[in-house]
# Entry
Amino acid sequence: MTTVVVLNGPNLNLLGTRKPEVYGSTSLADVEALCRTEAEGLGLALEFRQSNSEGELVDWIHESGREVKAGRCIGAVFNPGAYTHTSVALHDAIEGIELPVVELHISNVHRREPFRHHSFISPVAVGTVVGLGVHGYPLAIRALHRISLAGQETAS
Ligand code: DQA
# Structure
């Protein structure tokens, strides 16, 4: 079965209790359940991960990119958390392994502090979903699925 990967960066394990006025009260386990329902509806298996470590995220991006090249994965929905605004390493990993990524943010980062307005990920993402709450995750999975189907049509 083809897989869709959902990667979550630092502090997203605190979802549901961390600043609920910004991120809502849904837990990361609930987000995983939302993603699983969406993926299964599209005939995809779900690989859902969270890490507070930049290096581990780099490794998972490389692994996912290799799975895409092998035809076993359509790409990744990626909420890089605060690394969005700091990480050249994550930018380079996505670019280097050519992983199709939909960047996702639960909150509307453009309405928040200026330091959240710049993303190192956006220039190497196929698209972004921003500010739609946790319901952005299933939308991003759907978008990645569409993009991968369009890619297959172009390839054939
Ligand atoms: C976030 C936005 C980031 O600025 C922040 O550091 C996060 C979560 C979001 O989902 O809205 O940790 O990526």
Summary: Strands lie at 3-8, 45-50, 73-79, 101-105, 127-130. Residues 3-151 form a domain with the Rossmann fold fold (CATH 3.40.50.9100). Residues 11, 79, 81-82, 84, 105-107, 109, 116 surround DQA (CB under 6 Å).
